[in-house]
Amino acid sequence: MPAIQTAKITLSVEPSLKLKARKAAQAQGISVSALFGRFVSALSDDAPPALLRDAPITARALRLSSGKVRLPKNWDYRDDLRNAIIKKHS
After folding, report:
1. Is residue 8 part of a domain?
2. What's the total number of domains in the chain?
3. How does pLDDT run across 28-77, given as a tens digit for each residue?
4. How far apart are CA 43 and CA 33, in angstroms?
5. 33 lies in a domain?
């Protein structure tokens, strides 16, 4: 089997994001490089349409980043995501 050619890149991220990436990769039994590769592949033109659709939380996340939404202190994005999935599939 021929070797796959690779190229190194350097990313600058916050330390907390680096830790999250390592934990996510470890949970999937892959390297951070493979995790990043999968993410970028999902964004490519060759990806199935389902992978390119915005997640239900995207619009709200954009409003949050612009400061237009105030959230309760106990708000958890996972609850909103779970509710959106239940609504979509029920």
Report:
1. no
2. 1
3. 888 998 888 877 776 665 655 554 455 555 666 666 666 666 778 888 87
4. 16
5. yes
Does residue 49 lie in a domain region?
A: yes
How far are the Cα atoms of 23, 40, 50, 51, 78 from residue 46, in angstroms, in the given order? 27, 11, 11, 10, 29
Token pair in block for residue 1 = 């089997």
pTM attached to this predicted model: 0.47
| Domain annotation covers residue 62 | yes
Dihedral (CA of 16, 18, 23, 27) sign? positive
Find all residues with CB under 8 Å of 84, minimum gap 6, and list them. 56, 57
